[in-house]
Amino acid sequence: MEGMEMTEKEQATLLMDKFIDLQRIKTAGDKEKEIDYQLKTTKAKLEALGIVTENLTID
User: DSSP letters of the chain?
Assistant: First the structure.
């Protein structure tokens, strides 16, 4: 996938988003609800980019 490299700024933004998401889970009153929300929004973002998420779940 040539031309798909991320800039340092893009990498920093991605990691900051991940850090914020983990902080939200850690401090959530209802951790399961927050985790479900994080999964739902991440799945929507992946699917918007054309990434199939069916086989990504752990049963």
Answer: -TT-PPPHHHHHHHHHHHHHHHHHHHH-SSHHHHHHHHHHHHHHHHHHTT---GGG---
Question: Rounded to an integer, what distance in angstroms lies between the CA atom of residue 52 and that of residue 13?
Answer: 23
Could you tell me the two tokens for 51? 């990434």
Q: Measure the CA–CA gap between 43 and 21, rounded to whole angstroms.
A: 14
Contact 25, 34 (CB under 8 A): yes
How much is the pTM? 0.73
5-42 per-position pLDDT tens digit: 889 999 999 999 999 999 999 999 999 999 999 999 99
Cα–Cα distance, 8 to 45 (Å, whole number): 21
